[in-house]
Amino acid sequence: MKTVYVDNAATTAMSDTAIKAMTPYLKEVYGNPSSLHTVGQVAKEALEKFRAEIAQCLNCDAREVYFTSGGSEADNQAIRSAAANGARKGKKHIVTTAFEHHAVLHTLKKLEKEGFEVTYLPVHADGLITASEVEAAIRPDTALVTVMYANNEVGTILPIREIGEVCRKAQVVFHTDAVQAVGHIPVDVQADNIDMLSLSAHKFHGPKGVGALYCRRGIVLNTFVDGGAQERGKRAGTENIAGIAAMAAALKEACANMEKTAKHVTALRDGLIDGLLKIPHSKLNGDRVKRLPSNINMCFEGIEGEGLLLHLDARGICASSGSACTSGSLDPSHVLLALGLPHEVAHGSLRISLSEGNTQKDAEEILKAVPEVVEYLRNMSPVWEELEKGERPHLI
Ligand SMILES: *Cc1c(COP(=O)(O)O)cnc(C)c1O
Question: Taking the complete model, does pTM exceed 0.85, yes or no?
Answer without folding.
Answer: yes
